[in-house]
Amino acid sequence: MKTRTFSVATLPTGVRPLAATVVSIARQSGRILRQRFRSGVQAWTKGPADIVTAADLEVQNLIVGRIRRRFPGHGILAEEGLDATAKTEWRWIVDPLDGTKNFAHGMPSFCVSIAAERAGKVELGVVLDPINSELFVAVRGCGAWCNGRPIQVSEVSRLDAAFLGTGLPHRVRRFAGSVGRTFTRFAVLSLGVRDRGAGALDLCYVACGRFDGYWEIDQSPWDIAAGGLMVEEAGGRMSNFHGESFDIFGGETVASNGKIHDQILRVLAKPGGIPKRYTPPLLRR
After folding, report:
1. pTM to 2 decimal places
2. According to the model, what pLDDT value does residue 214 have?
3. How far apart are CA 176 and CA 4, in angstroms?
């Protein structure tokens, strides 16, 4: 991990215009979410245990509009029903409001998450927590930062001293058995487990050492694209539940400081810990 403070001017030439644009977009999106928060949120159901608010759509329209004006040849994959990605070298992966349930219920744990993927590899990630005014940025090969300062994962080396994050998937009814068993095991074996309801932000917390590890099943690419790069660039490790290469379309997320990663995987590998015949919510195209 690099130790210099964040500056667009020091980034590789090819990524500078993307980074400058997405940081500006994230900040503008955050201002909208702060204005809409606890101000009479309009929300409706889009699936089992899954909702969308007017703020989700307003922020997504802003993000998509600005990306299309600045980078008309890029693809966009966004949570609220947008997939315009055919034959594009660059693709933006957008979650306009990660933690929608929290937002809709007046709980201050949510964020904007935007990633840029080139030829199938995430190269840039930005996550903004508008309530705490924290802007997380990661650029492949350059490092990860929070509010311009370099961040790094924790040094905890034992699972029994580790503070962990997790989340419940929207399709939790399909995985209730394995999710329940796994949560119980980690609760017993670790310092503690928290479900804060915003996976992208939880991954940033692993990256800056607030969490030592994190796991979750059945996430979509917009939940984890930016945060996954954040962990890697902060010196951590990402994988699926089997310890194999992390894929933002794989639906299985394990993030850690690297020192406790194998210990997390051993817990997940216990009987019933990994759902059988699992199919991710979204396949890569």
Report:
1. 0.95
2. 98
3. 44
